[in-house]
Each structure stands twice: as structure tokens, then as C-alpha cells.
Amino acid sequence: MKKHFPIVAFTAVAIASVAMAAFAYVAAEDATRIKFEATADDAMSRIESRVDLHISLLRTTHAMFVSQQGNVSAAEFNGYFRALDVETQFEGLRGLGYLALAPKGQEAGLEARIASLQGSGHPIFPADSDGEWRTPVLLIEVNDATSANAVGYDMFSDPQRREAILAALETGEPRATGRLGLGAPVGNQVSPGFLLFSSVDTGSGEAATTEGILFASFRTQDLFEAALDKFPILPVHAEVFHGEPRVENRLFRSDAPEVEGTELVATRQMLVAGVPWTVEFRPTPDFARPSSRAVPVLLGLFGLLLAVAIALVQRYQGRAYDAMSKLQEASETSLQEKDLMLQEMKHRIKNSITRVLAIARQTAGTAEDINDFSASFSARLQAMAASQDMLTRSRWQKADLGELLRIELAQAFGKEMPDDMLTGPKVLLSESMTQALGLTFHELATNALKYGEVGNSPDTLKVEWSVERNGDKRLLLHWRETSSAPVVRPEKTGFGTKLIDMNITRELGGEIVRNYLADGLDIEISIPLRAKS
User: Fold this and answer.
1) What are phi and psi of 433, to 5 degrees?
2) Residue 127, helix vs strand vs coil
3) Mean pLDDT of 64-76
4) Could you tell me which residues are beta bridge partners of residue 278?
5) Contact yes or no for 384/356 (Cβ under 8 A)
6) Cα gap 193→142, rounded to integer Å
7) What is the pTM of this model?
């Protein structure tokens, strides 16, 4: 677990950082959306207030006509209109007027009434209408010098106006038309607008009669600019539609550019004199977000860098801890090895002294004189020293059997030995086997020099060995000395022979067989390779 802790720490901090960045991003987007929704609500409130102001104007005009039972002269209506200060108080109002209402077929009486009010004759146009009513313009005041004189125009002849007039007559409430083109065309287009109609009824209950119909016309570009362009300027791009938001239904589109590809769109619905409008708001480049989008990104990057830093710190701390642990273990192991080495050296020194004393005692017992003792004892000590030297060079681990044989035989026969004198595979010997076999080979080589023909002809000695793997692994060594005369068993067993037997049988737990033949001496040695050290 300690090994994977930096990865776990990095993953946890990274996930937390990404989650925090994502939360900050979502929170920033929500704050932006809420702020824009509030801005859109402010813009919508301005539009509704402006529309309500114009509807209230129509109601006020309606009250004046009702109070005079529809008998308002052209001069009175003109004075009323001028008193309104339309250019400053009612921006967007294009015109205000009054329609007569009479069944179809009474055109003559209506034209006479127009002449009475206007002081001159104005024919009703168009001459024919599909409807059952005729509603020519009796009075009209416009805030547009380029507008044509509309006195006498039968608004009932237009389907859209007719629908609004009938709705106003039926409900007794103001009713708006859909999108209309008002005024003289500019190029191939006319300015979009709409009309409001309100019936003028006198009397009450069943005695109420409709004297005429009031109307107000509005150019939507002026109306909505008046609502939205007042201080402070709102950073919104607005589009107003009659009904569904389609191009053919569009009443108004802001001149302020919208932000391209924005997902911020606030849609509002409003009912204007019985007609549904759809208003869509989008932000302009002046719209300022509550916080930058770069903040969540920077937060996420900072979190990832923090995660990397924590992971690296944890990794280096883990490495330092592992290094300290390994150092401590190495120190403890070194102390244990040193103590074990000291104990082993004490044991080996004691064994070596014991063996040297035994060799000295046995050599002295068989030596003829002091010179014989000195030569034999020195040779045996050199054999032990050679074995010790091999073990030292192998750091007291393993010694090679072939190399041990070459060292011991080289002491007896010199370094120039036949290449085929020694034959066998590589066998690694333990410490105890190296010590015991080193003395054994020394004694065998010494006896061969004393009693055999090896001193005159090294080719008469062959040493072969192999490893038997039937059950326990055993070393099988064959020592063969060739002689021109028969070899007989000695009558007396010398110390060298005893030392060989003691090393093979007692020290190594093996077996040794000597065959005295007519053509030489044949010695077979069998040793388990798992002998005690």
C-alpha cells in the first residue's frame, strides 16, 4: 500500500481538484445565467411599461370620446393630440384616430359625416369591402409628416384590422393586430408596426350603442428603442415576435450586436391587448460575466499541479523511508554477519588448532627422527594452508574440486602435469569437504611419490571423478596408479592411511576402497555431496 500511496494521493487530489474546478465552472455559468436572466427581466419590464403606457393613452382617449358620446370635432381632437407631447412622452406612437361604424350600404351617410368633420369631402376607400361593416377613418392625427392622408380609409377592408376590430367590438376591451407594415415603403420594405382598437360605447346595459372605434398605430422600432435605449443601457440584444418566433412575425430587432454562438437566451412571453408576443434576449459584447471562465481552468490546473507536487513529495518521502529502512536492515544484517563471522572464526580456529595438534601428535608418533617429523608435518600443514587459501579466495563459500586437486598435486609433482591426469565435471565443495579432501589428496600424492612410479613418470597417475544422482547426490572419485610391478597391501597401517580413512569416513561420511593389483593401485572414494560442514 505504501508503494501505491503517491498514486492514490495524486488521484484523490486530482479528482478533488477537477471536481472543484467543475463546480466552480458550473457555479460561474449559473451565476452568469442568473445575472443575464435578471438583465432580461429588467429589459422586459421596460418593454411592458412602455406598452402599458400606450394602452393607458388609448383608454384615456376612449374616456374623452365616451364623455362626449363620440361628438369630438377635428379641432378638438387636434388640440388633444398636440397636448399629448407625443415626441417626448409617447415615443413610438405613430398616430391616433377615430373610425365610424356603420353597416355596409350606408357609405353616403358616412361620407357626409366625414365632410362635416373635415370641412371637405373624402370618399371612402377602397370602394368595396368583403365585410358586413364599413369603418372609414373620421379623425386622425399622425406623428409622421410623410404619411399619406388616411381620412376615409375603411380599415374593415383589411383582414388583420378586421379581425382586431371584431374582437374589440365583441369583448369591449382594446385589441391589437398582428404585424403590419406602416407608412411609406423605404426601399422594398415598410416599417413593421401594429394597431390597437377600442370601441366607443355610449349608454349602459341593453341601451348601450357603439358610436365608433378608436385606434392607435405604433411603429415598433421606435416603440422598443424608446423602452430599451434609456439610461442605463442594458447589454441585451432583443427580438420581438408576434406569436411564434419566426422571421415573418418579427416586430423588432435590436441594432446592438449579439454575441455569436452564445448559449445564453432568455425567452419571455407577454400578452398585448389580447395578442401574444414572444421576446427573445441575447447578450451583447458589453455583457460582463460575474467571473471569468479562466478562473475554473486556472483552479483545475492549480489543483493538478498541487496533486503532482503532493505525489512527488510522497514518492520522495517513500523512497527516503525505504532507503532508511534498507540502511537499517543492512546495518542489522552486517552486525549479525559480523557476529556470525566472529563466532565462525573462533570455531574454525579451534578446529584448525585441534587438527594441527592431532596431525602433530600422529606425525610425531610415526616419525623416525626430527627431520622426518619436520618434513612430514610441514607438508601436511602446507596442504591445510592450500585448502584454507582456496576457501579464502572463494570467501568461505565453495571450492572447486578440480582446482583443489591441481593445487595439491602441483605441490607433489610440480606445476607441469599432463593434461589428462585429471578428468571430471565441475564440482563445488563445502568448507568441510575442502579441508578434508585437501589433506586426503596430499596424503595420496605423498604415498604415490614414496611408493609408486609417479615420481619418475607422472603419466602413471590418473584421477577421474563423476557425480551420481541416484537418490542422494554422491561424488565418485577414482584414483588410479599404474605400476610395472605388483602392488601388495602393506603389513602396517601408517598415519597417512589413517588420516585418509578418518577424513573420508568420519569427517565426510563417505566410503573408501583400496584395490592392490598386479599392475598398480586402484582407490575408489564415494562421498555424499551434502556432507556436514
Assistant:
1) -70, -40
2) coil
3) 90
4) 241, 269
5) yes
6) 14
7) 0.56
Compute CA 331 distance to the chain's CA centroid, rounded to the nearest angstrom: 44
Check: CATH 3.30.10.20 for 367-528? no
Ordered by start, the domain boundaries in the chain are: 73-283, 367-528
3 state DSSP class of 256: coil
Q: Which fold has domain 73-283?
A: Beta-Lactamase (3.30.450)
420: three-class secondary structure by DSSP: coil
Residue 345, C-beta contacts closer than 8 angstroms, at least 6 positions apart: none
Cα–Cα distances (Å) from 373 to 115, 268, 378, in that order, read: 171, 127, 8
Share of the chain above pLDDT 90, in %: 39
Among left, alpha and beta (phi > 0; psi -120 to 50; other), residue 424 is left
The two domains 73-283 and 367-528 share their CATH topology (first three levels equal): no
Residue 362 has pLDDT above 60, yes or no: no
Beta carbons of 362 and 499 less than 8 angstroms apart: yes
Rounded to 10 deg, the angle between the 294-366 and 370-393 helix axes is 170
Rg (the chain; Cα; Å): 63
The predicted structure's pLDDT at residue 344: 45
Question: Cα–Cα distance between 153 and 169 in angstroms, integer?
Answer: 19
Beta strands per DSSP E along 284-412: 399-400
Task: Work out the angle between the directed axes of helices 370-393 and 431-451 (0-180°, nearest 10).
Answer: 140
Residue 219, Cβ density class (10 Å: 0-12 exposed, 13-18 middle, ≥19 buried)? buried
User: Residue holding cell 592411511?
Assistant: 497
* pLDDT tens track for 383-401: 666 656 655 655 545 788 8
Residue range 308-353, pLDDT digits in tens: 788 787 777 777 777 888 888 877 777 776 764 565 455 446 545 6
**234 and 45 Cβ atoms separated by less than 8 Å:** no
Higher-scoring residue by pLDDT: 356, 486: 486
Strands 133-134 and 209-219: unpaired
